[in-house]
Amino acid sequence: MGNADTKLHFRKAVIQLTTKTQPVEATDNVFWDQFWAECSIAVQDVFALVPAAEIRAVREESPSNLATLCYKAVERLVQCANSGCPSEKERQIVLNCTRLLTRILPYIFEDADWRGFFWSTIPGADENEARPLAESLLLTIADLLFCPDFTVQSHKKNNPDASEEMRSIDSCEYIWEAGVGFAQSPPLNYIHDLNRTELLKLLLTCFSEAMYLSPLSDSQVLNPWVSFFCSAENRHALPLFTSLLNVVCSYDPVGYGIPYNHLLFSDYREQLVEQALQVLIVTLEHETGSAVTGPDNLFVNYLSRIHREEDLSFVLRGFAQLLNNPLIQTYLPRSTKKIHFHQELLILFWKCCDFNKKFLFFVLKSSDVLEMLVPILFYLNDARADQSRVGLMHIGVFILLLLSGERNFGVRLNKPYTLRVPMDISVFTGTHADLLIVIFHKIITCGHQRLHPLFDCLLTIIVNISPYLKSLSMVAANKLLHLLEAFSMPWYLLSAPQNHNLVFFLLEVFNNIIQYQFDGNFNLVYAIIRKRNVFHQLANLPTDEGSIQKTLQKKKKKSGISRLNSTDVESMESSRPAAPAEPGTLKATLEATPGIDKITEKSQVSEDGTMIALPRSSSPATPPHRGAINGASDTESNSERDHEVQQIPRCSHSVYFSAFSLFHPMLSWKSRLPLQTIMRLLQVLVPQVEKICIDKGLTDESEILRFLQHGTLVGLLPVPHPILIRKYQANSGTAMWFRTYMWGVIYLRNVDPPIWYDTDIRLFEIQRI
């Protein structure tokens, strides 16, 4: 009954505010205290009892009252923080003000005329001493996140003066969890975890002003909320960064391993971990360049300086444990807790690798890099058919592209793959490199059509690792040949101006393996011999208009390439196929990603293993991005512009000829196809294999493989070409993509309460599938 009276009392206060036509004085504490001092209102109730329409009505019709409400709520938070929240009533006031501001702030941000409100000083205050309201709010939130007996355990017993403790507190002694730079693990206190979560939710809402600016806005302008909070003005910056990172990396969702324990007990730490993770990835958004002005981002600075081996190991183990959580197999279905914040984890991992090169090299030199690889491949395979998870596909591929630019990654992939993670892929016995190739093949041939702009990235990753792959399995070798067969179809090559680059990438893969890893790759050599017609057809592609016309007329009579063309029905690791999005699923649109030539820089590997950056050039294998031509943005509809290898659109040949001059450059790139090494291999080995088969009457594949295993091409191949690695390079295009993706994830993951639902977001669109 009491709870119903409380909600009724609060609702009456809201109605009074929305119906008042005259400004209410800031000194009328009796009126304003109705919103936070006289009752305890759950955050869900605040969202239900303060409707969006009424907030907008007050904003338009009684702007002074909305301004005063915000000012008074921040004022009460400051007062409580200064006093140290010694009483239960003050702690409740903090939570009520926090929930109310979380509800109101998005409606401040959606109106351009109101965005400057929090950055103005209070009328009548001393201009030299008064802080803008935003700064007061941010510093108060930081203070409250280290408030003894409210969000951290008090170190002083029976301290009568909580305000003195707040002023003199060294928050580095109150870091929330052991880990980087802090050895003591404080006792768990679920009340503290809940209070921290609510404050972090408000902090994230403050940062979310970025969602209300269009992606066309000046990307060099820093988010003022993040910029101030992560500056030296915030005395808690270091302990808070450390607390957030340690809480995330030390979290163990399985706990003591008791089956179904997550059904018996509420895990308040999980809510805190999710909010900490989201705050971390937002605060670590950092623009670089001479045009950027503003204070140093201390969070980025602290992350970049982590260097102790034990700290790097702690962070990497935390990532690996959490990302592998959905892969944990048990005999009891659903007996272990599954986390759902893997997208935020991947963003944070990306930022760690980007800002801290010591961490990146630690990952690459450690065998734990494979503990990261397997879950990323699992997520890629699982999400490939779901258009609501196109962003997840991109972040996973970008991480692998970043890692593939380093030699150690390719070398590590030679480790045998012995796990049996349930994925609907071909059964094989081989290495982690085989797993990567098999899954990439599945993405290309059976993925959603919106993934077509990623094909360049997927094949670039395989090119980067190919010089180091000691022994591909027969399954992986056949997958690579199937991709070449599909991409080299004349009508596919002619269906878009840049499609031929996929063929260039695959030929580069084969050349790298033949020249640098021939001895162990007899499976691939055998697959090349079996599919030698594909290479002969490439060498004899038509270049005159008449021959092209005949080719396209043949195409007119054919249907599109089937999704599993030239592959047998395969036995699968799991019967659970990748599923498309459920109807009604919400997704956030994404910015188009730049082409592979814009996000990578070519480096040549010298004899001593060092890399030498090469000057940029318009190489035939790195042309302007097809994504921009095809409309790669996720805001586009599923149109016929999306050319796919699995289902190439059937077009009248006259369409092609109306644009014949556009595709006629086949004349120029065909002569640059790097076929010499492969043709020489075929020239030497095909007669030998045919002779053995005739002389010995061989029909058994294993005998031929044994012969190839002991064969050699020393002195018979052309001089080995230099190894070229395409390393990821940060650029403004990917920075904007990451911003829209990150905020899209945060928007969709915060549904209880739905902080930004039904507000005028401009950074992206929310679409229902």
Automatic annotation (TrEMBL):
This chain belongs to which protein, by name? Answer: Uncharacterized protein
Q: Which PANTHER family does the entry link to?
A: PROTEIN HID1
- Top-level lineage group: Eukaryota
Spell out the Polar residues composition-biased ranges: 562-574
Gene Ontology CC terms, in alphabetical order: Golgi medial cisterna; Golgi trans cisterna; membrane
Query: Disordered: where is this region?
Result: 549-584, 615-644
> Which InterPro entries does the annotation name?
Hid-1/Ecm30
The species this protein belongs to is: Xiphophorus couchianus (Monterrey platyfish)
